[in-house]
Write a structure and sequence with these properties.
The protein is an all-alpha fold. Helices cover about 75% and strands about 0% of the residues. It has four helices and no strands. This is DUF6460 domain-containing protein.
């Protein structure tokens, strides 16, 4: 009987004489579905079911529904966008006010510098 400790068998496996067989303790290759889900489909289904019950219970205690949650997120997004646009509007006013002072001063300084260089 040839055991795993036999050097002839190990050499034959290294040279590809025997087909590779998974040894005990080596992980098997997982299927694409198993890799995508992050576990077996049944285990993932049980985890998702458990989490769904927990989240549903918390939402019920807070008086939230999926529709209400969606509209609250929508309103929050709209208010953040409006705030951002208002900030840009104010920023644009600052640029115009500053430019009304800075550009004429720069232009006069350039005219004076050019007249001195000649």
């Amino acid at each position: 009987m040839i055991g795993d400790h036999d050097s002839r068998r190990r050499a034959a496996l290294d040279h590809g004489a025997y087909p590779a067989q998974p040894h005990h303790g080596e992980p098997r290759r997982r299927s694409a579905l198993h890799r995508f889900l992050g576990g077996s489909p049944a285990a993932v289904l049980v985890k998702l079911l458990f989490l769904s019950v927990l989240v549903g219970a918390v939402m019920a205690m807070l008086g939230l529904t999926p529709g209400l949650l969606f509209w609250r997120l929508y309103d929050l997004t709209r208010s953040l966008i409006d705030l951002g646009l208002e900030t840009f509007h104010d920023f644009g006013r600052w640029i115009l006010a500053g430019a009304a002072v800075v550009v004429p001063i720069w232009f006069i300084a350039r005219l004076l510098t050019v007249s001195r260089e000649r």
